[in-house]
UniProtKB/TrEMBL annotation:
Native source organism of the sequence: Amycolatopsis pithecellobii
Pfam families in UniProt: BPD_transp_1 (PF00528)
TM spans (from-to): 27-47, 59-80, 86-109, 191-212
ABC transmembrane type-1 domain mapped to chain residues: 21-209
One MF term in the entry's GO annotations: transmembrane transporter activity
Entry's localization field: Cell membrane
Family: Belongs to the binding-protein-dependent transport system permease family.
Name by which UniProt lists this protein: ABC transporter permease subunit
Keywords: Amino-acid transport, Cell membrane, Membrane, Transmembrane, Transmembrane helix, Transport
Database matches in PROSITE patterns: ABC_TM1
GO biological process: amino acid transport
Top-level taxon of origin: Bacteria
Keyword Transmembrane found: yes
Length: 221
């Protein structure tokens, strides 16, 4: 098939793919918000001085990290139904992705906070800063950059894993590519277009976070 023929085919399905991309971006955004919020809670729990709280958080994190994301999606989707919680496939997918990636963000946050030198904690204590002030004014600014790079990579993984929700019947980008390929019998062309669109989303987010990191570094020196 010629190049013009491929572009013409892509043009025919551009609106469908745009709808799928919109759902993919929404899945990524909502899932990311949930993952970060839950990840912060888990990180705080893993750094808690109460052993029972640390133990619960550790079990959650280790279990989630050892379980494939697809299995977590199935557990949330079918598990909620068994409990009588009737969520749509979209929100079940958001919950599943958020719960799975929360464990990864927890370890990123915990690693960044624990990476701050002990001397910084002691200096904050010497200045008479309370625990909250020490965290906001001393620890978090120094932990930000060590957290940002692995967090960027994790966001990229989240974008790619939104394609897994096709098994739940969510009409995201991969679902539209699969439907188009079954109609046109041109799977290579359809999934190539989907791949280019995933790459575009990743590139936009990656460059934005890279710019943000450079901006923060400039203002720290």
């Amino acid at each position: 098939m010629g190049r013009c023929d491929v572009f013409s085919l892509w043009g025919q399905y551009a609106a469908d793919f745009a709808d799928g991309l919109k759902v993919t971006v929404e899945l990524t955004g909502y899932g990311l918000v949930l993952a970060i919020a839950l990840g912060v809670v888990l990180a705080a729990a893993r750094l808690s001085r109460v052993r029972a709280i640390r133990a619960v958080a550790t079990v959650y994190v280790e279990t989630a990290r050892a379980t494939p994301a697809l299995v977590v999606l199935f557990l949330v989707y079918y598990g909620l139904g068994e409990l009588g919680v009737l969520w749509s496939a979209f929100w079940s997918a958001v919950a599943g992705l958020g719960c799975f990636y929360a464990a990864l963000f927890c370890e990123i946050f915990r690693g960044g906070l624990e990476g701050v030198e002990r001397g910084q904690h002691e200096a904050a204590d010497a200045l008479g800063l309370g625990r909250g002030q020490r965290l906001l004014r001393v620890i978090l600014p120094q932990a930000f950059l060590p957290i940002l790079l692995p967090a960027t990579n994790t966001v990229a993984d989240l974008i790619k894993d939104t394609s897994l929700v096709v098994v739940l019947g969510v009409a995201e980008l991969t679902s539209h590519a699969n439907n188009a390929s079954s109609i046109t019998y041109r799977p290579m062309d359809m999934f190539l277009l989907a791949g280019l669109m995933y790459f575009g989303v990743y590139l936009l987010i990656s460059r934005t976070l890279t710019y943000w990191e450079a901006h923060v570094q400039r203002h720290r020196h």
